[in-house]
Design brief:
CATH class of the largest domain: Alpha Beta
Largest sheet: 6 strands, parallel
Strand content: 5-15%
Number of domains: 2
Mean pLDDT: 77
CATH architecture of the largest domain: 3-Layer(aba) Sandwich
Number of strands: 6
Distance between the termini: 138 Å
Low-confidence stretches: 1-37, 44-80
Radius of gyration: 39 Å
């Protein structure tokens, strides 16, 4: 009987040890799995943080290297002109973009350099209201002595033999800012061709007035050119002047 009891006790001990071992193994496995999961989560978070930093840096570089639309739209640097070796240059002022389009077409036809004059004080829609007797442009055009400042008059005309000068017609004449420009430069030995855009008015005496103010250069009559004029029409216009 003792032997039987001893065998039963031994068997029960073995079962207890087995159960403990199984529990310990399960606990160990669960702990390992939990640790692995935490490690994976930390690695994922680190990768996401790194990717976010890279995106932020790329956005910052993009903003720093971005070029304003107005500067990109200009065919020539607005602050200085770098001659390409051409003997012709188109210098223009455009308040609404109409003269700009014509100037670019002339530059394409003549393989000329191009330079846009920018007013030191930009003209607003209210400034351009010709129906308002108190608008800025009305006041300027009523005073022949007004000389609005130019923000970027760094254009160097040396080396050019032909200069096209473009502008919109305001109150039958060139904007006073064009007087500021021609009075500041020497046109000696150059052929100067004025051109204008307008809603219907011709070039009138605007070209001859600028010639008188410049005091130098061989000024041709020039003419009015329509918005959207084709390059073939520009070629015809140029040939008619020769």
């Amino acid at each position: 009987m003792k032997k039987v009891m001893f065998s039963l006790l031994a068997a029960m001990c073995m079962l207890g040890f087995t159960a403990c071992g199984s529990t310990d193994s399960s606990s160990s496995s669960a702990a390992h799995t939990s640790a692995q999961t935490q490690a994976d989560q930390q690695e994922t978070q680190a990768q996401q943080a790194e990717q976010s930093a890279e995106v932020t840096e790329a956005e910052q570089l993009g903003e720093e290297n971005a070029v304003p639309e107005q500067t990109e739209a200009q065919s020539q640097n607005a602050d200085t002109n770098e001659s390409t070796g051409a003997d012709t240059i188109v210098v223009y002022f455009s308040a609404t973009g109409t003269t700009k389009g014509v100037a670019e077409s002339i530059a394409n036809v003549t393989n000329a350099d191009i330079f846009e004059l920018i007013p030191a004080e930009p003209y607003s829609d209210a400034d351009l209201d010709w129906n308002d007797s108190g608008s800025r442009t009305t006041i300027e055009m009523n005073d022949p002595d007004v000389r609005p400042a130019i923000a970027n008059d760094t254009v160097d005309l040396e080396g050019y033999t032909t200069v096209y000068i473009g502008y919109p017609i305001w109150w039958g004449d060139a904007p006073r800012m064009m007087s500021t420009f021609v009075e500041a430069h020497d046109f000696s030995g150059k052929t100067v061709i004025p051109f204008c855009t307008s809603g219907g008015s011709g070039i009138g005496r605007s070209g001859s007035n600028l010639a008188s103010q410049a005091g130098s250069g061989n000024w041709l009559e020039g003419g009015r050119l329509d918005a959207g004029i084709s390059e073939s029409e520009i070629e015809d216009w140029i040939n008619d002047m020769n």
